[in-house]
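Posting here for the record, re: xanthosine-5'-monophosphate.
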Amino acid sequence: MESIPLGLTFDDVLLVPRRAVVRSRKDISTRSPLSRHIALNVPLASANMDTVTESAMAITLAREGGIGIIHRFMSIEQEVAEVLRVKRAESYVVDQPYTMTPDHTLRDAREFMSLHRITGLLVVEDGGRLIGILTGRDIRFESDPDKKISKLMTPREELVTAPPGTSLEEAKKILQKHKIEKLPLVDKEGVVRGLITGKDILKITQFPQATKDPRGRLRVGAAIGVKGDYIERAGALKKAGCDVLVLDIAHGHSDFALSAVKDIRERLGDVELIAGNVATAEGTRDLINSGVDAVKVGVGPGSTCTTRIVTGAGVPQLTAVMECAREAEKKGVPVIADGGIRTSGDITKALAAGASTAMLGNLFAGTEESPGVTIMRNGARYKLNRGMASMGATISRYQAEMPQMLEDDLTDVVPEGVEAMVPFRGSAVEIAHQLVGGLRSGISYLGARDIEGLRKNAKFVRITEAGMKESRPHDVDVI
Ligand code: XMP
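Prediction output follows.
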């Protein structure tokens, strides 16, 4: 048998400090590529897990300069709706506002508004001519669900509109003058060409770091699998304006994954595509040769993962990131360190080891923005964090996709993840601020101004358990 190499993870090492070159952490750039064609001001992505990322998380993280990857454990329509919510969250013009025709009932409108989580919609005739607006105020106290929306809307003659191409400044003036919140853009024929809302205008100036597409909309990623409807799902997500698809399976170095990558490339052309997960140079090379724009690295490091215990396979995350990043660098393809990040120091180490971005599940799972409810236990608040290969997640998947399977025995299912509770941690904004602050400080300790400098200056020192014990607070009662 060959000699066995040593695999290391975050707690096995520290970064050796170098002479600092910046006076303030504010002078440090954390800009880094997510994939070949997308860069982030903050190198953080939220994990595509059903207890971590739907539109609320994706919107918050994109505003903070990172990106959220919507999970795929829902119908194609639902995943598309999540993506659309992000794409519509923040641009001063909504190009294709939600519309309904006047013959629809209040029931239809309420369902539509709740699916898309919107508070108003434009009412149009066939051909797209504007005939009214229906807002929350128009329907708040209406009790007849069968009433036509034409009877409830504010009609065209009472609306203020503007032509397409109205500038941000002009729009602000019109909204102010008429004290209105929504300004439909209509062409000479009266056809709807866009919508400007006061809320969107306010948000643009609030988040200068935000991750935006060329049209000023927040960027978002969405996950797809490698079986069943994945091509249809990928096509629908691309059409909805999703910026990057993440082909995600536990063992990304597989014939299934490689042929799925090729398939998507052939059928969807230039879509931005990330794939994973892998933990070796060979896995990275094969994915890159199949046509991916970034490689997601991590087999078993995640907080809710039991893959290494159940299968005996995996590579400690720091070694995995180093080997994969070394391989990917030859082709100029970024690597995402996915799983096992517990502190800002782990992020600094992952980036120093060659990753361009870190993907976080656990740290974001306990926030306001993660899907799911808050649980109370012994007076404290918690949220759920479950592995996507856990028993609970598998049962939910069966319930949604193939309920007949639930009638069978589930003893064939071998979970590779656990379900857990994590303390409620407030908003993801605060978590992101703490993580980015720590990363900036780490870059400064390494004598660098940016992530490229961090990587260049990085020298790891291996530490012992005693070294790790010394690194944490000790001999005190932490309050
Ligand atoms: P953290 O540590 O940030 O890791 O919570 C998030 C990542 O964990 C992976 N993941 C799993 N891995 N079984 C696994 O072996 C699972 O059930 C599972 N669920 C999530 C995934 O890569 C995620 O981004």
